[in-house]
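Continued from yesterday's entry.
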Amino acid sequence: MPSRFLKASLRDVHPYVPGEQPPDGEDWVKLNTNESPLPPSPKVIEAINAAAGDALRLYPSPSGMPARRAIAARFGVSPEEVALGNGADEVIDMCFRAFATAGDRVAFCRPTYPVFEPMCRIHDVVPAVHPMDESFRWDDRFAYDPAPLKFVVNPNSPTGTWADPAEVERLVEVSRGVVALDEAYVDFAPFDLLALQRRYRNLLVIRTFSKSYALAGMRIGFAIGHPELIAGLDAVKDSYNLDRLAIAAAVAAIEDEEHHRKIVDFVVAEREWLSGRLGELGFDGSASHTNFVLVKPPRISGAAVADALREQRILVRRYDLEPIAGWLRITIGTRPQHERLLAALKEILA
């Protein structure tokens, strides 16, 4: 039962539930939270070790300027076009704080990243939810929704689908308010849409270091957009929202493009291999452009499969809400992890 002291808008809210995190060091095959199967760059570890000294008694750069400069240099923008957050989730939260007033509409599609709906309740805004079609595409009602803030996840999670760039640009062009384009998984897709922010002052592109840079444990997210939008995010951000170690890690990671490309190439190759093996077992699913696959098991419910896998210490993410009820999201791991998963699935399906 909710506390009587809780504000009214949160008394019947269902908070976002992250994927299960078993204790470190235990023998789990963890394919439920879209983490990297490979470790971060050795240069990141060196930078963190160098930063973990006497200077930790001092506050970090309030703006995280070393990381802003490194990100700006990598993507050919100015530091004034970069904002930082404690993970992409904080950047998303900053968008609510900066661009949506209590009572406003905030538009997004379903199924997509499930954090948007509880954030609407937290910020006392109205969720304008637009269902996707069977191919996980939006329609003109979403594109022309007059909401002052609109979220698009591309490639989308949890479906793994990638929207046509022309459709995304048209949506940004006809939208009256800010469009926050979440590209957390874009490094695993054919290409990104960062160039659009040069043409549209209402577009914010959100990225993360959690996936293709293997830094989920450091919680580093960023946004790139017009300086006016970035100034809006900076006006509402928490003080010192990135610590000294995270800033050092971000600089080292973004500057080691060779290691970044190694992670991306590994994931894409393993994604195609695993998709093929799951198809041979009768699993149904659309092509993925992310570091996971979304599949539906044959002849048995996704919940039953997930529970049976967990008994063998294999974690995947299950979904119970339409239109993907009974589907499983499986993070791309290593080949030994995939082989253990497939052996368990063959046993379960038999």
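--- second protein ---
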Amino acid sequence: MDLTNRMRTFAGKIVHGSLKTLAAGVIALGIGSVGAQELVMPPTPEVPPPAPAAPREGLFRLGSFEFSPRASASVSYDDNIFIRDTDKVDDVVWALRPGFTIASSDLTTNGGKSLTISYDPSFLIYTDQTDRNTINHAAALSASLAFTKLSLGLSQTVSAGTDPVVETGTRTDRLALGTALNARYAFGEKLSAEVNFGLDITDYPDRYNSWDWSNRDWLNYQYSSRLNVGVGLTLGYIDMEGFPDQNYEDLLLRAIYSASEKLDVNATVGLDWRQYRGGVDDTLAPIWDVAAVYRPQERTTLSLGLFQRYYSSAYYGNQNYLSAGVNVGVRQELLTRYVFSVTARYYHSDYEATAVGAGTRGTDDVFLVSPQFEVQLKERWTAGVFYEFSHNASDDRPFTRNRVGLETRWAY
């Protein structure tokens, strides 16, 4: 099935599923994404970003919109393009990624509005495995409307492509769509509330798809200028095509702490309770997302993330998996033009049946490390080299993979 027909079929599923699930009255928050040639793994904790830089003007204006183009190109050697240890296949992969952002904003101290649209296709060309040539797509839209006490937001993401997916143990066609609606109301200087709705769809065109709906609400208290604490509740429903569905509820506590200009911490801990309609026992497990950024010097950034979460498997249909792991990062700017960075990640996933009699994949033990060095050639143009080592000590789908390459990027 070609990409156009896949997208048309996917859109039809969205309409049908929306009508069915709106009748049930349960909605969820979620955003899916796929990165070209990068391993598709469980999402990492959201690391607190540094203070945003002043907005830059785009290349040109279209009415009230700023148009900002970008492009990157890379060539890399991949010794295991199918991420499997049996019958390894290597290749040299060429990638071209043009993209753009169109943004308009009118923000004041009393409110305002903004709209941002972006699109980033990836053209992947294989030197030997030419039948694997493909175009991946990633698009996003976000909009906000703010008043003195009330702020509203909408985001939509769509990605379609073929990538190495750890869960499937090979390169896999995958569609993902995320819709999120959110609202925040400030009762005063210290007390505020958030209501978040959304939908996270993961679709494997040759297998199954899942619809994850949930509503996550927060009550926040600004304890001090540096500390914000909150209590949250999530109500969720997962509709799995062709398999028994499930409900889940999360009770959460959150702290957002800016210890100083050098340290930011974002921590969420709680309990995940799931009920399955496939005849298996309910599950209750602790979950957490802890992310921190430390900037000991102006040009040095250290990051740390710890996580444990439940995920449903759209690929296997009647399985969930609990993933726990850690990711770390180091970024060092050298002089004014050079940047050296290293990212590393480890996580362990246990698969569990969601229906009586269903088999399980077993476990994943994934380790990934990637150093990178880049130089700023011009104000908007950089070039660099990268290496990536990944290994999965899986019960049934182990692999070891090495990638090394050159990349150049330009962005206005």
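Residues 3-24 form the longest helix (22 residues). The chain has a mean pLDDT of 87. Will compare against the first tomorrow.
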